[in-house]
TrEMBL record:
Keywords: Hydrolase
Keyword Hydrolase: yes
Species annotation: Congregibacter brevis
Recorded superkingdom: Bacteria
Residues spanning the signal sequence: none
Protein name: HAD family hydrolase
Family: Belongs to the class-IV pyridoxal-phosphate-dependent aminotransferase family.
InterPro entries (alphabetical): Class-IV_PLP-Dep_Aminotrnsfr (IPR050571), P-loop_NTPase (IPR027417)
Residue intervals passing through the bilayer: none
PANTHER family named among the record's database cross-references: AMINO-ACID AMINOTRANSFERASE, AMINODEOXYCHORISMATE LYASE
Length: 246
């Protein structure tokens, strides 16, 4: 079976789970939720909510995960939701050459403010900005062109147009089924979902995504957070120039 493997690389507190819902609502698609999470926690020792459950729910060997992502054939379309902060310093990214790599970005201030409500102490690397920019540059060099880039705000403004363009770029037909989905959890959600997915569980489409709210951008940032935001803005703005628009 020929499998189209769409790998969507995003930082946290984006519309990444909504995007996974969108693809999962297609009849020809299987999805996987953050397959490198356990490997990331095992390597970094970070104390995330539900850490013990996460470590026991997935293999902690990133090489085993990467091999499966490139070889498993769960459906004709295999959507992989990846967090860029899960890219470890010693991870050989050659496996990504076998994937259709796409990049989901969001205004840094919104990400930082949203993440700070869940974890108060974090670094820029824990938000995946640096890793995402490096993988984006690698993919540009490999392809000789810019890979698909989706911005959260631009996607929410016109999901049908942006998703239609994305499907064309990864050579799959667009489906209206991608624009809405049933509320609630999924069996495919990671075990960390109760800690992070409450808003997504309440959504039924991009129009109800919590990322449309202004509360994140209105929240004041601490001095360290503002410094992180300034660094992240440079990387974000560079990728934003290539984002799909309605």
């Amino acid at each position: 079976m020929k499998v189209t493997r769409v790998a969507m690389w995003s930082g946290p507190r984006n519309i990444s789970t909504a995007m996974m819902r969108s693809f999962e609502n297609r009849s020809d698609c299987a999805v996987i939720d953050e397959p490198f999470y356990a490997a990331y926690l095992a390597e970094t020792g970070l104390d995330h909510p539900g850490r013990a459950d996460i470590l026991s729910s997935q293999t902690q060997d990133w090489q085993e995960v990467a091999k499966a992502l490139c070889e498993d054939e769960p459906a004709a379309l295999y959507y992989q939701k990846h967090m860029t902060q899960h890219i470890l310093p010693d991870m050989d990214l050659a496996f990504t050459d076998g994937l259709s790599n796409c990049f989901l970005i969001r205004e840094p201030r919104r990400i930082i403010a949203s993440y700070a409500r869940v974890r108060s102490d974090f670094t820029l690397e824990e938000l995946g900005f640096t890793q995402q920019a490096a993988l984006f540059d690698r993919e540009c060099d490999r392809l000789g062109r810019v890979p698909p880039v989706l911005d959260a705000a631009l996607t929410l403004a016109d999901p049908a147009s942006v998703l239609s363009q994305l499907c064309s770029l990864v050579s799959v037909p667009f489906s209206d089924a991608m624009l809405s989905w049933p509320k609630g959890p999924r069996d495919t959600d990671g075990v960390w979902a109760p800690h992070w997915y409450e808003s997504v569980w309440a959504s039924s489409g991009f129009a109800t995504s919590p990322s449309k709210a202004d509360s994140d951008v209105e929240q004041a940032l601490s001095t360290p957070q503002a410094e992180m935001c300034a660094q992240a803005e440079v990387m974000y703005e560079r990728m934003l120039t290539h984002a799909l628009r309605g």
